[in-house]
Amino acid sequence: MTTTRDTLLGCLSVPRWADDVLAGQPYADRPALLRAADAAARELTDEELDQALASHPRIGERGGERSRREQAGVDPAAGDTAERLAAGNAAYEERFGRVFLIRAAGRDAEEILGELDRRLRNDDVAERAEAVGNLREIALLRLEASL
Q: How many whole angstroms from its chain centre is CA 88?
């Protein structure tokens, strides 16, 4: 099984990750490709983390079609959701100096807000690990959907 660099960069905007995944082609099957993508995403540097986050919209600020689908469970127009998300995003960015990222697919606004509140209590090391983990989950979901 093979994929393209453009497809990979659409899943996770980190050229080294895409190159690492491409280097193992062709893969015996879909699970082998996903395992390789998973392993390569676990090794993100701080620079790569920043690079990947630069292409992600804030939760509640839906970007392109893919982002809208992934955030389908979040209705910013419902109640005070937009205000709570804006306040949470601002607090997170002030605390950690980067956009809050979470795998939104399959989660509703309350679950995301709960995770945001919980993660604001993380130290820098724990939060970096959670951000990388969520990026990895997003990349794998996107890659799987593209196959």
A: 17
Q: What's the Cα-to-Cα distance from 3 to each of 11, 78, 106, 144, 145, rounded to whole Å? A: 11, 39, 25, 11, 12
Domains, the chain, ordered by start: 5-146 (1.10.3330.10)
Upper half-sphere CA count for residue 110 (Cβ side, 13 Å) = 2
**Residues ≥6 apart with Cβ < 8 Å to 134:** 101, 102, 103
Instruction: State whether residue 128 is helix, strand or coil.
Output: helix
pLDDT (tens digit per residue) in 100-146: 999 988 898 899 999 999 999 999 999 999 999 999 999 999 999 99
Q: Residue 75: is its pLDDT beyond 70?
A: no
Give the model's pLDDT for residue 76: 61
pLDDT tens across 79-98, in order?
788 889 889 999 999 999 99
